Hints:
Blueprint: H1 5-15, H2 20-24, H3 30-37, H4 45-55, H5 59-81, H6 85-97, H7 99-104, H8 108-121, H9 125-138, H10 144-160, H11 164-173, H12 182-195, H13 199-215, H14 219-231
Amino acid sequence: MKINIGQIIKLYRYKQNMTQSELAEGICSVSHLSKIENGSKEANQDTINLLLERLGISQETLSQKARHLLSLLDEFQMNMYFYALDQAEQNAEMIIHHEEQFFSLDLGIQYHLSLFQFYLLTEKQPLALKTHRVLKKFEKTFIETEKEIFEYLDGIHQIKNGQLEEGLKKLENCFSYASVEQSDLYYHYAKALGNMGLLGDALEATHQAMDLYRQKNNFKRIIHCTLIQFMA
């Protein structure tokens, strides 16, 4: 995993109330440190190690932090998938508490995508809109999987805001994306079709969602699919 070492150094320097002069003394020039922190200059490993040592951290510590943050995101995703909303709410609070670390370790996009998904799931529309705006600002920097997940979530966002046809088209694009959970995709696709009055297609998509949910023992979502069938 790529670690934004300059942001890490700046973050820990701030936390320890150190000036750039204090951190750089005997290691490098202040201007050199400033360029490292701003990401405009690649530093050699010896310089990085000396700066980290003065801050009391190591590359291994950073790798451990990154693995911990990824595990938080994995647990968050699992609880959202199984509709364990109380646990997901706790996950969200924990993740927000670590916001600075997510960005310093180049996990900021994953951080916002996960929260965007949570706000859509829990019908927190003002927060969903705010997070959507943040993601749009970073959209040009997305890697391919992030583009796919954002298109999927953006489709759900549009549907929830009454843009049914636009949202439905985005969801249809997502059936070829390996990064998008297909059972959830079929579920949201079925709901959108039902809202548009395409009941036969909605029932077919619901069957697909139920079959996939059964394979993963996602009983809450199976019940939700049954409700779609009943309403159709």
